[in-house]
Structures are given as structure tokens and as C-alpha cells.
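Possible regression after last week's pipeline update?

I re-ran a chain I had predicted before the update to compare outputs. Posting the input and the new output here so someone can diff against the archived version. Not blocking, just want to make sure nothing changed silently.
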Amino acid sequence: MRRCGFTLVELLMAIAITGLVAVMAAVLTSAVSTGGQHVQASQQASQQALAALDAIRHKVATAYATANQPGVVVVQTSDNGWQFSDTLVLWLPASGQPANPDGLPLVEELLLICPDPQNLRQLIQVRAVGDTREVSLWDLNTPEWQAELEQIKTSSTSQRSLLCQGLRVVTVSEGEESGAPPGAPPPPSPPGSSNNNGTGQQAAGVLFSVRYAPSQQELEEVASGMRNWDQVAWPQGVYSASTGLRQVWVSVELQLSTQATDGGTEVVLPFFGSATRYYQVNKDEL
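New output (post-update):
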């Protein structure tokens, strides 16, 4: 007699195969979705970082500078023994012209670019509106002025605006990235950090550095008569008997992090940029 239908064994095998195919399809769909989220987040981070680097480049190129005030300095942020090169200060009057063109900048004429102390994932620019104190850019790395700048960053009267968000944040004491499970292998310390003790501190993935050519020491030696004007290392050898070309070169590193909306693996994206300011130094102004 001819048999119709399937046996129990055949039905179980069909159900198992169908279930396996469904699981594989779900895994593939999830992987594609997660990959798409990472790609979108990476594109958004890239757009933000490139826009921030372009803004910094423009601000450095337009900073006001004199023979004794180079217009741009990097200020160390100090906290619990850690030092972070995460604050760029520019002499950039809001009006376009400084109150003392041949003297010292006013505090309100300084523009700070730094991580937001209240939200380290944000890179902001800050200005102390109405602060008419004079200050030398070379004094900003003293403990007194470092503390003053920290107050400016968080003051409710300061003018603040966002440059980009999504900065990577790390806990430098334990070497653990923010949100990493206890006991995880320590990642590299954030850029520009150093420590003299074992105290913990969080930091944003921001690093500024600046180089002057000629250096301030060379110009001071010319002013004191310890070095001849023509012995100064002028960029591209551009100088005359009374003037010389000075270069201020700023390098920037931003580390942004992205994460899928489902709490997937965090991806760290580094971005690098540089900016240059050229200006004329007059020998009789040293």
C-alpha cells in the first residue's frame, strides 16, 4: 500500500533545519544592522572632527601676535597630579582688534579651546566676557592662572559654544576606559597625560602641542645681546636687518569614540590636524 505524508522523524528534521536557517538569518541581519550603525556613527564622528579641526585651523591662522606674545599657547590642565595638554589658548579678540596692540592681551580677548569640564565628551570654546585683566600668555601655565582658567571654563558668565562631541573618555589611574569592565586590560593613557602619583582621574582624548620658530628663548637672547639677529633660526631663512618671519605651528589630536545603539563594541577614531600662524617680528620691539 502506498504511504502518504511524512514520518515523525522527517517532520522533526524539517523543523530543525527551518529553525537553523531562521537563526542564521537573524544573526546575519543583526550583523548587518550593527555594521550599518557603526558606519553611520563613524561618518558622523568624522564630520564633527573635521569641522572642529578646520575651525581650529582658522582660529590659529587669525590669532593676534606680537614679538613677545605669540598669539597661541598650550596650557596644561592639572588635577590630582595628572597633567593634560588639552587646552589651547588663542589671543583672538571678539572685536578683531586688541585693546593693547603693543602690550598684553586682556583675559576677555582670550579664546580657550578645551574639553568641557562638565561633560568631557564635548570639545568647546570658551571666552571670559567682561574680564579686563591683563595677562601675558607665558604666565598662563603658572598654577595661579591655571586655576583661573579652570574657573573660566565652568563660570556661568563665560561665553561657551560647542565645537564637537563624542570625545573618548578614559580613566587614567586604573588604565580602564570609561565603562570598561573591572579587570579589563589597560588601554594606552590618553594623549598628553603624565602623572606623578597613583591618584585616579578622567580625561578626554584631546592633545594640543605648539612649536615656535624661532623659539622664545632665541628672541630673548637677541633682546639681551647674547645672540646676533642673523644667528636666529628664521623659518625658510626669511629675515632682514630689522625684521624676521616667525612661525607658530600647532598640532592637534582628537580621539572620538562611537558605539552602536544596542550597546555594542566601542570604536575609537583618531583624528590629526595642524595649523600655522606666520607673522612679522620687528627687532626694535623685542
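Follow-up from reviewer: compared with the archived run. DSSP finds three helices and twelve strands in the chain. Marking as no regression found.
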